[in-house]
Amino acid sequence: MEVPAGKEPAAAALHSVSQPVPVHITVLKAQGLIPQNKVLITSVRVEYNGAVLGDSPKISVLPEGTAEYNFSTSFECSPDGPNTLDVLVQKPVLLTLLEVVPKDKKKPEKVTPLGQAVVDLLPLLQGSRSLKVFAPLYAVSNSPSEMLHPEAMGGLEVTVNTKEPLLSATQFSSGNLLSITLEAAFSLPNTFSADAQQNCMVCLQIPAAGEKEFPLLFKNGILKADGKNEPLPRPKHWPLGPILAPDALNIPNSFIVGGPYEDEDGELTRSEDREFRLQAESTKRIVWDTERRCFLDAASVAILKKRIAEHRRWPVELCRMATASAAKGKTTRADKGDEDKQIAFHGVAYVNMMHLLCPGVKQIRGAFRVFNYQGKEVFQKTRFKHSIFRDCRSQLGLDKEGFQTSPPSRAVPSKAVKEDKDSATVSISLCQPWLQTARHREQCLSPQQYSEAGTFLVMEIKLDKPLVPKRLREELIRRVKELIPPRPELPRRTEGAKKAVEDYHKRITNVAVAILREYRELFGKQLPDQGALDHKTLEEQKRQLDYELNTSGKYFAFKEQLKYSVVKIVREKYLKTTAFETKEQLQSFLSELYVYLVDHMHIALNKLLSEEDVFPPSPSYTTMKQLLLFAREAEANKDYNLASVFYKQRIARDQRKIQSWLDYGAFCYLYEDATKAQECYQQALCLNPHHTQSLLVSGIVAVKLQHYEEAEIFFENACCLEPSSIEAWTLSGLFYEMQNSYIRAERSFREAKKLLKAQLEEERRLLEAAEGEGEEPEKIPDGSAAKPPKVVEDTFTHFLAHFLPALEPQPPPCTIFMKTVEFLMKVNAVRFVDKALAHELLNLQGGPTCAYYLARAWTYLMQEDFPRCEECLYEAVQMDPVNTKVWAQKGHLCYLQKDFDNAKECYERVISFVEDAEDIHFVYLRLGSIYLEEKEYGRAKQIYLLACDNSATCLTWLGVGIACYKMEEMLEAENALSEANALDNTNPDVWGYLALICLHVSAQPLQPGGGRHLEAEQCYKYSVKLGLRNEALLQEMRAVQQRYGFGDPSF
């Protein structure tokens, strides 16, 4: 019933309590005790840390099942006593309910335990000075008492209080609570067998202040071989010895919940390990399910962080030992002097503690392989010099429990043996119960026993607060704002000022109309025969008009009409509502106001008296989507200056559209410079600091510029703002990997995989629901690819690397890396694509996929490595010969290599499929240009018309116009070129062919439209002015001009 006394080794010696602090415990009453037949007399015994603090008075249980004890006792919490804060944090108060049978004449008084309860004292370290709990009572095993109803076990109402806090607020906030839970060891060696006289133990060292290491010991592992898995969730146990009520060992509200293997932080998390772990967890195993706590003060927390940084892997030792009853006797001198001999089943697991140095991480849990303990190997991996079981036996108090080394070897001098004649009766080996034969001896001491069996420990290490705090969302937003240069303030737009100016214009107009009416009444509407008045006449008419207006009072009336509108301008436009302090200020303001009023008077009069109608500007014929397509076409033709112009036009149309900035930034990132791309992304973030894609691309360009701290802020902020983004977590992992922060990379990848798994499960659920309702999902016809929505302006899509569009592998990718590759290819992040594809290759089961080869071909094309690109496309064709994207990309490769015959064959194959390829526009353009080169004008015209029907651009109509011109269909050619000119009137080729058409038509007077010499000349001027570089077209124009003798102004 009692817990073994003695001070437990702990993680850190706490010096927070300088003076003893009494901890008062009061047992108020018991509830739920229902006697069956007679009066039940009970008492409560209070114990702590193996010491009995006292027994309550003997109280009879009332019929309703309650008993009032009101018993108080206490113990002292002192750094020098047995009950330190180290003990307080991990040991509960033990309460035992006793049945007391009074003595009579024949029998003495009999005390029988009925149940036990525990009270956790951890809240006293968390700032509480008092707590009141209802501790459930758990029945004592094999209790002879039948005085209680079978379902009557209730609980004890207990209060615990101290006069002063055990830790100040500062001490608690600067400290940390470390909890280590050892769950079980699985896949044990065959030599492990159930033996009541053997104790399975695990120990690890926790750093304390200074250079000391404190061992943390887990005893009393239970060997099970029932073939059943451990239930989940299951309660964690207090680190106490055997007690009368085993269920009382359960820590309240603390459970082992398990989880998917792939979400763990240890080893054996791969899919191929799943079957092994499932099998191992249902066979022979050692179960502890014990949690030990350690409170670390500020100094110990600092030491812990330092040690983790210095020693990434920490050793966790495992062994079996004989219990005290099996190890009585003397110890030989050979045992006393030999500390390097083997320990029975001495193993070690290496726990990677670096996870705890990741920002925001408070817990690591996983399975860790166990290896046979080899001192040199342990030192190489962990830099720990000493074995806990071999070198710290006395500190752990294991010598008294029969912890012995292995028997001495035969080389020990016989004299030493003779000096200890009683050594034959002494238990000197942990392996002695099994060492009956040579075969058993080899099994016990096999150097690879754990490795051969595949033994692993499952444990959890948890902190109350992360060692490295995670940046708060507010801080990340603030840091992002600091990285973005301030935008110039927009000009003030006051509706009141605008309305005041408009009202002034209206008053000026009204007054001008009235004055004009007066003038006409005085001098008539007709002008002299000459059509003009001399200066003297105008001066005379002005003098007469002024006289008439002043004498009639109309001048004053006109002035009053203007007065109110001028006052409104002063108040709304100039915001002047108070008197001026000096005359100089007044005079200066009046001069400025006069100039302003006169200027706007002229504007109003010009509008009134102008004889020309003012037409609004003609609407643009191009949309934002078309401008983006124009830019991609310019990239396809390697005309990067023109592409830049189109991107800038999109921005000029609407500077508040984020996508326009992102598209131009992706273009600059690929073809110009990363600094300009960074400026574009900063503009996008200025418009919306919470835009996840803008944050991600800002991080990518920061990596290229080697601004790694900024990149980390961008990626972390993206994950914080959109924690459900698979791309954000995967990109963060790739970035951390570039920084050699492999633990953080692993955690990011794991989070992304968890999100992808949930997404795929949701899609599967929706599909099953649709099938359950009798709806068949839409099927994609054979020999075709799924056609994505044609929304160009709402995606990052743009023509990439030598005019190859971004690829979206079909079927949809099912890994985080391929999903991220889609995004990265859209923003031209070649370096990140390489990293992601490398991971994809390592994680693929069954070899690379067609999607992988397509993405890899894209990267080679970016680097102009055509042979390796061709190899990848060859593999892709072998894997999916009916994939339109594969053939389109192969056609683009052949086109860039000027292998037009193969390019034409690939393009013709693409357009023969039922569904269009994603980049069908560029397939049409290039196939049409090939037909033009081969003088197949009819087929070229047909292909270009298909391109116009799909997405009309200047180049598609230009192709139609050229084909018609070559076939001498001048009217159709002119119509097509007119359409091209309407979409883009800056294309010199369009003007050049229009000039040729005008020349030919003008040379045939009988044809409609003959005599167009001026148009031919104007078209030629525009083509030259716009920088026509097509030498063949120039030569043809000059030849036709010389033939007909016009069209060139220089003639």
TrEMBL record:
GO terms for biological process: cilium assembly; cilium movement. Pfam families: TPR_8. TPR repeats lie at residues 658-691. This is Cilia and flagella associated protein 70. It comes from Zosterops borbonicus. SUPFAM superfamilies: TPR-like. GO terms for cellular component: extracellular exosome; motile cilium. It comes from the Eukaryota. Residues 768-787 are annotated as: Disordered. The keyword Lyase does not apply. Keywords: Repeat, TPR repeat.
